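for the writeup, i need someone to sanity check this before i put it in the appendix. the sequnce is what the collaborator sent (i think, or maybe the updated version? ugh). structure was predicted straight from it, no edits. if anything looks off just tell me and ill rerun, i have time this weekend
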Amino acid sequence: MSKEELDLYKPEFHGTESAYVLPNDVTEQRRLIEQHEAWKALMHDSVLHAPVKDPQKVIDIGCGTGIVSRDIAAKFPSAQVYGIDLSVMPEEHSVRPSNLEYIRGDVRQLVTADGDERLKPGSIDYAFQRLLVLGMTDWPGYIKSVADAVRSGGWVEIQEWTFQISENGKNVSEQWPWQQDLVRSAWEKKGLDLRCAESLEKWMNDAGLVDVKAVSYRAPLGEWDLEEHPESKTMIQYLAKWWATVNWVCIPSLIGPGNGERIEAYKAQMLKDLEVAQAEQKKSYEIIVCYGRKP
């Protein structure tokens, strides 16, 4: 979105008490669909990584528009798939295959003994989750609850951004003070760990999962890596189009009211920094995919 479009954008948010800071409107739904296409292309059209075979019950946590849920349902036609989200599925995305249902609620409550009858502890073959970095608190506790919900031999898979900018493998996030303030404010005000991706492997092991494996992907800012990694083209286009929008929304949501001047200064600097990063070389974010099996 352009600066003019961002100035006019009035995001609409979830009507819940969740820490989730991103909107729940038509613009956000469009972004999520394009994000999925970028994610999928970067991963060579293979979004799912865990070596799951013939699952009978699968959950997609934080399913959003349901696009991954529908992919999972198509990949495993004999499985019952449940897409879980805090919001009601938008009407325009409600068409679904017969083996997919949507459940509204907080997964941490749904998978307990007193939760949803369909999601009893120890009944799930595969739990998939992507991009809850801007909404999930208490990651160790959350991962433990998901691990408890999975049956013996089942798999848990989590995919997350690192909110850390790298250049030639080195963390250069300090160059962008506004982003560092977002990381601090997210933790202090919302309990959100924007660097959760870096600890997924440890938390999965701590939750008792075995055969834990982490895979990383580079999401470049700009086309400097395109020749060597043509699969990153859609991600580059996605970041150029939408990453400023994500940060534009996050800055006031995380910095909080009463900081108008700082928010406006951060927004302006963020747009400049992203513009420069698109033109420069070697800057990127990292995506971590981590999965493990319940013994």
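Strands lie at 57-61, 80-85, 100-104, 124-130, 150-167, 170-171, 210-220, 283-293. The chain has a mean pLDDT of 94.
thx in advance!!
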